[in-house]
Amino acid sequence: MANTDATTLEDGPDLLIPGMGEEGENLVVKQADEQTAEAEEQKFGTSRADRKTSFDLADFPVLTGEEEDWRFTPLHRLAGLHLPEGDDNLLTGPAPTVNVTEHEGVSLETVARDDKRLGSFMVPDDRTSAAAWASFKEATVVTIADNVELEEPITISVEGNSTEPAAQHIHVAIGANSKVNLVINQTGNAVVNQNMEFAVGQGANANVTSIQAWDDDAVHVGSQQASLGKDSTFKHVVITYGGSLVRLTPITRFAGDGATTNMYGLYFADAGQHLEHRIFIDHSTDNCTSDALYKGALQGQGARTVWVGDVLIRSNTQGTDSFEKNENLLLSEGAQADSIPNLEIETGIIDSGGHASSVGRFDESQLFYLMARGIPEPLARKLIVRGFLNEVIQRIGIEDVEQSVTDVMEDEIAGLEF
């Protein structure tokens, strides 16, 4: 595949980047005296750190499609989830139902929107997230007590049964020093704007897999935000293959030193599907580690994927180790993938940081190697696709889920025509 962007900084601990001091890049910007406040306002938002966050829907104007964060998203396919008619027309449809498997130390509640746990760290950062916050009436709260260790996965089933535009809020609290696997299965038909929170306690180890297996006509816009306590570990795996349009924004914020996040994703887009993933990793505390790997395969006319990876290493941090990578495999004519990795470093003292991105067709060297050993070309291409996808599948870490995702991908691969 053609490599469109690859940058790596790995020169050992306390790497000092040339041209940068401990407080970040030393820039001198001369501004004319007559520069107006309006000109200053136009510069707002050039950094991921400047992104507006607010619970007030009015702070996010009606979208035009010209916004940087929305220029890849076909607004006409959002089914009204972005409230194009204005702030007074909230989302009133029935939210998908939520069921949680029973386990000792795990509780399930339905709470009113004024519950203080909701929005305790998650603040909307775009219009759709703010619309979901303004519209939901009740929320689902899943609480895992402190010091709980479960081998069997906790399954959160989210099932859509309506195409009326709806809002949904789910809050998951993982207690201190607990070790759990969570599987979120999103199925059925829905038009839903969803906020999901993961509060990960100190020393906890949470492995979360979110599977978007919606019906063909479903529309899903979601923000999945996590806050990591001191010395915690959070693995977040996204598997998306269902729905007409899915746009997810997984976000990890560090609330304590020494935490680790692994953000992985796999998406397979067929003809006409629009699958969009926008991750954000906010390094705001010391000695934290992040690793992100998203891979996508596309086939069919009008298959479209978008991946944007934002990693921010703030000026008050040290000892950060971060890498993000996105790879996309185009399996047919008429498919399009956009991949934009963004690494923003405000400090000169980091352990390592880097990003990589690629979009392309088959690796001809791999294809030649297999065909030279007597494997027919169509089968060789399918073997390459299988290996490409498996790199993410094997990182899920839950055997039953890995097998079920493998089965789905095998069905997709079996239908490929070369």
TrEMBL record:
Organism: Yaniella flava
Family classification: Belongs to the iron-sulfur cluster assembly SufBD family.
Gene that encodes the chain: sufD
SUPFAM superfamilies xref list: Stabilizer of iron transporter SufD
Domain SUF system FeS cluster assembly SufBD core span(s) in chain numbering: 164-388
Positions of region (Disordered): 1-20
InterPro entries: Fe-S_cluster_assembly_SufBD (IPR055346), SUF_FeS_clus_asmbl_SufBD_core (IPR000825), SUF_FeS_clus_asmbl_SufBD_sf (IPR037284), SUF_FeS_clus_asmbl_SufD (IPR011542)
Protein name: Fe-S cluster assembly protein SufD
